[in-house]
Design a protein that fits this description.
about 600 residues; alpha/beta; eight-stranded parallel beta barrel; 25 helices; binds flavin mononucleotide
């Protein structure tokens, strides 16, 4: 028998003895008995929480896992007497108990040395006959999973955000539906003209009222079109849009700083108040640092000189961060760095803590999580990481309120976990920037990649070998390059003639504009439902979609027609609450069965 007598280890018994004990039903009480001699005292102190121990030996993992059982053995707080409902100890009853998240729940022991289970109602007394009482868990509402400060600041019931999807795929209708359900939605303004965004604002305001529930809209960074970025910013400021999600930024621009600083003022108590909140969606610490810091003085000075900020606004902007809501975006649909949330989130949280300490801001900065959230387990894990709120995207694209045409939604509803790929995108094609798209049922990814490879290999359309050009025209573009160029020319004549001048000077740029026509059109076709070009559909989508489909299979949410954005959200949140409860109970030592860790979608609300 190998005896563990090293004081670095918590378990002064033999590994074999502990393993044997673990195989017995009431091992929690047997283990103390196998401690002998002077090790027993060490062990008792450990179990009572008084002995600091270094549990470093991987060989002890199995023994380690017994710790909660052993410690609860010594931590009976009182006695629980059941009321009308009996205590639950067997697996089926425990699985059902886990789902009752809105009720306080007592963790009790079946007998002085028996299994741990749970009880509802009844009475807890200091001593007497009844079940040994280990502790009580308070109610757990889906509303409470995130940071309550988030809900209070924005006046929402749930810490849940429906992310913007470009070209109005996150429609005004979708924003209205989630706002009415006590969540927040951001209109998908990317790729739309200021007039189209204005129309959406009209629709949302008409439905929700000026001072109605919270909603927002997207300000997407446009490196090639700063005027458009500025116009959209003007629109939001002049229309009084109170929440703006700034995304795709690689640093601060005058437009986003203006959105943040315009309207800053002090209230009667001298506290700095904002007219609008910036949500910054990002995946890189250096970008996060810029948004979590006050706007740079030079940028404020420029805006002040241009008359775009008052002296008071520029001065107050030096005391507050640009954004108080930072969304850490992990592997997602569309533009993504493909970072796993579990790696990205803690880094941004630690950065937030450092910057909060450094700047001593009056208000907290909240960090939310996006990317890959398509199941209750994923949502629960985001909250467990510390997310103040969660943001979903891909899963809402197949919702009935989404702006995607029906055939695209059907394609999404059939996607599996691996049915996505990275492919070149239109807005930063020449730089080789890629977006995550649906692979199943469409050739877009492969075709766009082919265009990029050709772009890299040749200097102009004229330099393309005849066979290469012919294959591009027949297999990808679907029309001769000359026809595409005519259309591109018409577009830029009104939109931005400088592009045409550059194309005249740089044949490679002309080739890029022709290829970008395909990439741009490929994201319009699934929105309008251009069935002839179904194989060219560019549908932005992350692995969350496949995970969601897998979870929804066999439930009412399998049918695409039942996928309302609110039912998706409520089910993800309710499921996350159930899984969180299951984990709480497991950590308290209750042997929660596997069924307790699953939540099937159901109509809620
Ligand atoms: C079809 C589609 C279009 C999107 N368009 C935008 C956009 O225009 N601006 C933006 O900030 N994020 C955009 N996103 C990202 C979402 O707002 C959200 O952050 C992301 O989808 C969350 O990750 P998930 O797809 O894994 O749920 C888009 C996502 C999808 C799926």
């Amino acid at each position: 028998m190998e005896l563990l007598h090293d004081r670095r280890f918590a378990y002064p018994c033999s590994i074999q003895a502990a393993r044997r004990a673990a195989n017995q039903p009431d091992f929690s009480c047997r283990i103390p008995r196998i401690a002998t001699g002077h090790f027993a005292g060490h062990w008792r102190r450990y179990l009572a929480g008084r002995e600091p121990t270094a549990l470093v030996n991987p060989r002890l993992f199995e023994v380690l896992s017994l710790a909660p059982f052993m410690s609860t053995d010594l931590s009976q707080l009182g006695t629980w007497n059941p009321g009308a409902q009996p205590a639950c100890f067997d697996p089926a009853a425990l699985a059902a108990a886990v789902a009752r998240v809105r009720e306080p729940l007592h963790v009790v022991r079946e007998s002085p040395h028996g299994r741990l289970g749970v009880g509802f109602g009844g009475r807890v007394v200091a001593a007497g006959t009844g079940y040994p009482w280990i502790g009580t868990l308070p109610p757990l509402y889906p509303e409470w999973l995130g940071d309550r400060g988030f809900c209070e600041t924005h006046g929402v019931r749930f810490p849940y955000v429906v992310g913007e999807m470009a070209r109005g795929i996150t429609t005004a209708r979708m924003v209205i539906a989630v706002a009415r359900a006590g969540m927040m939605g951001f209109f998908g303004a990317g790729g739309l003209s200021p007039a189209q965004v204005g129309t959406a604002i009209d629709e949302i305001e008409a439905a929700l009222g000026q001072d109605g529930p919270a909603w927002g809209a997207n300000l997407i960074h446009s490196p090639y079109n700063p005027e458009l970025e500025s116009l959209i910013a003007d629109l939001y400021i002049s229309r009084g849009v109170k929440r703006i999600c700034a995304s795709a930024f690689m640093g601060l621009t005058p437009a986003v700083v203006r959105c943040a600083a315009k309207g800053l003022h002090r209230d009667r108590e001298g506290r700095i108040q904002r007219r609008r909140h910036i949500f910054a969606k990002l995946s890189r610490p250096e970008v996060a640092e810029a948004f979590m810091s006050p706007a740079p003085p030079a940028l404020l000075e420029t805006l002040l000189r241009a008359g775009q900020l008052t002296a008071e606004e520029a001065a107050l902007a030096t005391y507050v961060p640009v954004a108080e809501d930072i969304t850490a975006e992990a592997d997602s649909g569309g533009h993504t760095d493909n970072r796993p949330l579990a790696a990205l989130f803690p880094v941004l949280l630690a950065l937030r803590d450092r910057l909060m300490q450094h700047h001593r801001y009056p208000n907290p900065i909240r960090v939310g999580a996006a990317g890959g959230l398509g199941t209750p387990a994923a949502v629960a894990s985001a909250f467990a990481l510390g997310a103040a709120y969660v943001v979903t995207g891909s899963v809402n694209q197949a919702a009935v309120e989404s702006g995607l045409a029906e055939d695209g939604k059907r394609m999404l509803a059939e996607a599996g976990l691996a049915d996505v790929m990275m492919a070149p995108c239109a807005d930063m094609f020449e730089l080789g920037v890629r977006v995550q798209v649906l692979r199943r049922g469409t050739m877009y990814g492969v075709r766009a990649q082919r265009l990029y490879d050709v772009y890299r290999s040749y200097d102009s359309l004229e330099a393309l070998p005849a066979e290469v050009r012919q294959r591009l025209e027949t297999e990808i573009l679907g029309v001769p390059c000359a026809d595409v160029w005519s259309e591109v020319r018409r577009f830029f004549e009104t939109r931005d003639p400088r592009e045409l001048e550059r194309a005249e000077r740089e044949p490679k740029h002309r080739m890029a504009l022709v290829f970008r026509w395909y990439l741009g059109m490929a994201s319009k076709w699934p929105v309008v439902g251009e069935a002839r070009r179904r194989l060219d559909y560019q549908i932005w989508c992350g692995p969350a979609m496949g995970a969601f489909n897998d979870w929804a299979r066999g439930s009412f949410l399998q049918a695409q027609a039942n996928r309302s954005v609110v039912q998706i959200a409520l089910n993800l949140l309710e499921g996350a609450a159930v899984l969180t409860r299951a984990q709480q109970l497991r950590a308290a030592g209750v042997a929660v069965p596997d069924a307790g860790f699953s939540f099937a979608p159901r109509p809620l609300g």
